[in-house]
Amino acid sequence: MRATFMYGAGDVRVEEVPDPTIQAPTDAIVRVVRACVCGSDLHPYHGMQASSEGAPMGHEFLGVVEDPGSDVRTVRKGDFVIGTFAFQDNTCEFCREGFQTSCVNGGWYGAGGVGGAQAEALRVPQADGSLIRVPVSVDSDLLPSLLTLSDVYLTGYHAAHMARVRAGQTVTVIGDGAVGLSAVLAARQRGAERIILMGRHRSRTDLGREWGATDVVPERGEEGLARVMELTGGKGSHVVLEAVGHRPAYETAHGVLRPGGVISRVGVPQYEEAPIGFGSLFGRNATLNGGPAPVRAYIDQVLPDVLEGRIDPGRVFDMTVDLEHVADGYRAMDSRESLKALVAP
Amino acid sequence: MRATFMYGAGDVRVEEVPDPTIQAPTDAIVRVVRACVCGSDLHPYHGMQASSEGAPMGHEFLGVVEDPGSDVRTVRKGDFVIGTFAFQDNTCEFCREGFQTSCVNGGWYGAGGVGGAQAEALRVPQADGSLIRVPVSVDSDLLPSLLTLSDVYLTGYHAAHMARVRAGQTVTVIGDGAVGLSAVLAARQRGAERIILMGRHRSRTDLGREWGATDVVPERGEEGLARVMELTGGKGSHVVLEAVGHRPAYETAHGVLRPGGVISRVGVPQYEEAPIGFGSLFGRNATLNGGPAPVRAYIDQVLPDVLEGRIDPGRVFDMTVDLEHVADGYRAMDSRESLKALVAP
């Protein structure tokens, strides 16, 4: 079959590899119907050291179960499924506490002998915990929105969930990428009164406005910070949803935070150390949280909103490529020509 | 009157100064009945640059209102009161949200022309928000426990409150100082099932055990971390209450945290930057919070527990000095001979 690998910064290749096979009775082989390129894929696309061994790419997918392992109980051959961007058994103690991305039997696609989803097919470990059957046909108009439940929309949702966004609050969203826009939509769904979107790409912030942003701040750094403080009457934002992952975004986040406020991060941090002392978090009783979204915890609850058309998170996709041209999707997202690229193998 | 000043590391002096006077109609002058030395006073006691100008010391007190300003409505001359360790109007937006230490009209004792509480008397700004009348006599046996509501017990309480400690959880408390022991007591009051106290001073950890600690870990660093992980079956602690303020304590905190867990800090951080990336907080969806305790938010609720004898947080005091000998209190706390020194002017 054909599958996508990254060999270094900017070097994405589609190659012929052996078809995936069942390795444990809890595995399932899934034929990929839709995949996509993630904002987090752009981090190695910028910085990966050149390597003779390619890294399998892709972790978001819709597919059809081709071959369920002998212990798989909840999906059958032929079922149309959403795959969560990380796999989990959904039964361990951490899963039951709602943190499936820390599952003791879980893991990440593209690592440890598990392939990626930008491929014709992939092996899904812990299939019972990691595949969710969806009652639609493989050519449904809902595919783009259903695909966002694999990662991007529910990552924005996770940010708002961890921050416990509630009615009447002011929420600042940092980043107008697909996750940032998803965070706007999720904050609106939770009743945020005012949503300040920090981003400078007009076509993106326009979608953000449609999804609930009440204000757009294109300025960055000190200037952006001053603008948000001005918009909030000098008080700052109850909640900041940080959907970028670079340290300047974090610095902005604590700079615009109201006393007692919450910074929820879902942009994968590209830094390890940052300020958390008296002058940044402690002095104002700030809360910092967020992390890899346990989308499995949310998917059952949000699925009806997509199936019944109350939300349309699939609008983040503005480009479609076939698998052979997946590198075009990376390039277009990297140059900001595309917000998010759908892959239709 | 006599009042305490610090002139540099280890240099605490009691000096004659003019009596405090009303400067705003919302002030009150309070005669100090009991004060004490705070663990946070030991930070400048270790590291303050020598200065020709002394810093007024002390921020925890019980007292009697001597002279209420003309706009003060809730206390009268002769009232016996608890003073909160920071002052606040208790009416601004941030106060109403429960973060009185960020009051727009608030501030700290010993700074900006406001004196300290290790003195015969002090001026209390925003007296209506900062003084709480208590229906006991000035020679009540409850004075030590009432004094802890000025800061130390409610700082431990704040840690447990911010972490939302709940029944059935495992809570690790880092630090066997007066705040750490208070955090043990507060976690127990909230129903924590298992409380692991990290501390190495036997007399202190014994009090911790009386107050609810189920396990004591004297080891520090990697060894202490391994011990807590072993005690929790490799899963880590739902909550860590960090009551030290040095960076190694924070490193231990994220090291022993369970996925989805909460680190609540009340030790004033003696560092600004620290790890918060994928390997420390983000990867496991950790929450970090805490800060200066808004004791005003909790005092009405906890006061009955003290007045009716359900808790006895005043047991943290194991030494009493008069005002002239306050430096002995600093010395004894610094050398760990004393857990916390009460000052009876």
TrEMBL record, chains A, B:
Q: Which domain of life is it from?
A: Bacteria
**What UniProt keywords apply to this chain's record, in alphabetical order?**
Metal-binding, Zinc
Q: Tell me the ranges covered by the Enoyl reductase (ER) domain, including all copies.
A: 8-343
Please list the cofactors this protein needs.
Zn(2+)
Q: Looking at the Swiss-Prot or TrEMBL record, what is one Pfam family this protein matches?
A: ADH_zinc_N
Recorded protein name is Alcohol dehydrogenase catalytic domain-containing protein
